[in-house]
Amino acid sequence: MNWELVLTENNIRRLLVGDWPRALGGVALTVELSLIGIVLATLLGLLVGYLRFAGPRPVRWIAGGYVELLRNIPLLVLIFWAYFAPPYFGFESTKFASVLTAIVLFNAAYLAEIVRSGLLSVPVGQIEAARAMGMSPLQLALYVLLPIAVYNSIPAMTGRYITLLKGTSLAFLIGLAEVTEIGRQINNRLLTAPVEVYATLLAIYFCLNRALSAATGLLEDRRRFNRILCFFAR
Amino acid sequence: MYQFDWSILWGEGGRLLLQGALVTLELAALSLVLALVLGFLFGVLRWSQFGPLKPVCWFYVEVIRNTPPLVQIMFWYFSATVILPQDILMALRDYGFQFVAVVFALGIYHSGFIAEIVRGGLNAIPRGQYEAAEAIGFSFSQSVRYILLPQLGRIIAPSLVNESVSLIKNTSLALAIGVADITYQARHIDYSSFRGVEALTATTVFYLVVCMAISGFGHLLQRRLSRHRRSAA
C-alpha cells in the first residue's frame, strides 16, 4: 500500500479545495454544487409537485409530462445536453452552469413525485378545516399543505439529496474540477496507487453523505422543524 | 439557426448507435442479474440479523449506497489491474475487461439498494404469517413457497422495477472507462461529424423508450398484483 504517496499535504489540499485561490475545486466545489443544487431542485420540486397535485388540468398534464420525461433519461445524457448542445444553437454555457442545470432539472422531477405523494398523505380534515377558517388557496398551500407534506417526506427527500450529491461526480466527465476529477488527476500522475486514490474518494463521498443525512435527520424533530418553519414564515 | 440533418442517423452513425444500444442492453441485463443475486443474498442476511455478519452487511450496504456509482466503477476497474493475478487479467481482457468491470461495479452498486428493498419487504410480512404456516403444519419449503414469496413479491415488485430503470440509466456511466455504449457513441459522433444534437436526440429517445417500457410493465404488474390482493381480502 502506498498511502504516503497519496496522502501528501499537496494532494490533500487539492482534494479539499482544488487549485484555490486560482480556481475553487475538490470537495469545496462538490459541496457548493450539491448545496445550490439541493436548494434549487427542492424549490422546483415543490412547485412542480404542487402543480401536479392542485393545478388546473392542463398544468397538471404538463407537470406530469415533465416528471415522466426527466425521470426516464440518464443524468449523464442531460449533462451532455446542457453542455454540448447550446453551442450548436449559438449559445455558450459554462461547465458549472451546465452541470447545475442538469442536476436541478433531473432531481426536481423525483422531488416533485415525493412532494406529490406527501401532499396526498395530508388528511382531508386538515384541508377542510383550513377552508372552513376562510384560508385562500395560497394560504392553504403555504401554511397547511406544503409544511405537512414536506415534514412527512423528509426521509424520502434525504434519499434524493444523497443521490443528488452522488450525481455531482458526473461533472468530471465534462472536466469540472470537483473532487472526482481531482482524484483522477492524482491517479493519473501517480499511476501506482489507484486503489488508495479511489478508496480515498469513496471515503470522502461516504463522509459527505453521512453528514448530509445527519443534517436532515435534525429536521425530523417536529419542534425543531416547526421553529425553522416559523422563522421562514415571518 | 441550427440546420438539423437527420440523415446522419441512417448511415454509419446509425450503425454505431445501434451497436451502442446493444452494448447498453447487454450491460443492463448482466448487471441486473448480478444485482438481484447479491441483493437478495444481502437482504436476507440483513433481515436475519445473523450476529457475526451484521457489521459486514451493514458496511456493505451503507458504503455502497452512500458513494457515487461512477467512483465505484473506476475503483473496481483500476483496482482490478492491481489486485487480480496477471493470467486472470489477461483472460478477462479477451472478453473486454472494461465491460466486465462495469457489469461488476453496477451489479454491486444496485445490489446495495435491492438488499434494502428485500429487507424492507421481509420486515413488512407480519410475524403471525410464519407462525400460522407453522401451526397448520407447513414445512419450511412450503411456507417459503406458499406464504413468504407471494407476499414478498407483491410488496417489492414496484421497487424492483424502479431500481431496474435506475440501473439502465446508470449504464451510461460506462463511458467513463471507455465502454462503447450508446452514450459513448453519441459523443463519438459529435467528435467526428459535429452532428451531436441529432445523435444525442436519438440516444435520449432510446433511453426514454426503454425506461418507459419497463415502468409501464411495472404499472401493469402492480395493477395485477393489487387486484389479486383485493380478491383475496
Number of strands of chain A: 2
Mean pLDDT of chain B: 89
Order of strands side by side in the largest beta sheet of chain A? 1-2
Series of H and E elements of chain A: HHEEHHHHHHHHHH
How many DSSP-defined strands of chain B? 0
CATH topology of chain A: MetI-like fold
Sketch the major β-sheet of chain B: none
Describe the structure.
The complex is a heterodimer of chains A (about 230) and B (about 230). Helices cover about 75% and strands about 0% of the residues of chain A. Chain A has 12 helices and 2 strands. Chain A has a two-stranded antiparallel ribbon. In chain A, a hairpin with a 3-residue loop joins strand 1 (about 20) and strand 2. In chain A, helix 3 runs antiparallel to helix 10. Chain B is mostly helical. Chain B has 9 helices and no strands. The radius of gyration of chain B is 22 Å and the shape is globular. The N and C termini of chain B lie far apart (about 60 Å). The interface of A and B includes residues 168 and 199 of A.
SSE blueprint:
The complex is a heterodimer of chains A (234) and B (233).
Chain A: H1 3-6, H2 9-17, E1 18-19, E2 23-24, H3 26-54, H4 57-71, H5 75-84, H6 95-120, H7 124-132, H8 137-152, H9 154-167, H10 179-190, H11 194-218, H12 222-233
Antiparallel strand pairs in A: 1-2
Helix pairs in contact in A: 2-3, 2-10, 3-4, 3-6, 3-10, 4-6, 5-6, 6-8, 6-9, 7-8, 9-11, 10-11
Chain B: H1 12-48, H2 54-65, H3 69-83, H4 86-94, H5 97-124, H6 127-135, H7 140-170, H8 182-193, H9 196-232
Features:
heterodimer, A: 234 residues, mainly alpha, MetI-like fold, two-stranded antiparallel sheet, B: 233 residues, 9 helices, 0% strand, globular
Short description:
With 234 residues, chain A is mainly α.
